[in-house]
Amino acid sequence: MLDNDIEKTIVSREEIAGITERLGEELTRDYKGEYPILVGILKGCIPFMSDLMKHLDFHLEIGYMDVSSYFGGLTGAVDVKIEMDLNIPVKNRYVLIVEDIVDSGRTLHAVIRLLEHRGAKDVKVVTLLDKPEGRKVEYVPEYIGVTIPKVFVVGYGLDYEGRYRNLPYVGLLKPEIYENA
Ligand code: IMP
Ligand code: MG
Fold first, then answer.
1. If you count Cβ atoms within 10 Å of the first and of the last residue's Cβ in the chain, which end, N or C, has fewer?
2. Strands across the sheet with 61-71, in order?
3. Looking at residues 117-143, what average pLDDT do you find?
């Protein structure tokens, strides 16, 4: 049923399976002997984090944060509102943030600064998708599933007005979906 609203597949189920396996192997090499906290950024991280962690062969804890970023009215600076905070202390810990997509980079930039401010020993990011053309702050994630052009995608955690997160792959919505909204 959801398939009918999709114009084109951007990252297929098979590609996603290959990506999570490859990233899992890479992270398993890099985090050998460490005991990091995986911090999933809600809500988009859910399918990706679930698949990725099955390929991580080291001890870890998981936690979640829900954040929203917006422009501060008077200053023009970017504010990040913590809708739900992480409930594990990060002081002296390795932290691996799990994101669905990096676009402007503002959200992650702010979250990384916050976790560093709280005393995390090391903060890195793994993202399924990267849209480098959308960047407003200089920022390169350490672990990237796949780089995509500056298009709006849905599925596998990514939403349009709260919907399509449960689509099992990443795709482009048909234009009429926006037009009829
Ligand atoms: P940014 O990097 O601060 O601009 O924000 C990234 C967040 O914006 C992601 O975590 C998504 O929630 C959302 N986002 C960015 N691009 C897309 C997209 O193509 N589809 C759905 N959500 C997106
Ligand atoms: Mg998000």
1. N
2. 78-84, 61-71, 37-42, 94-102, 122-130, 143-147
3. 96
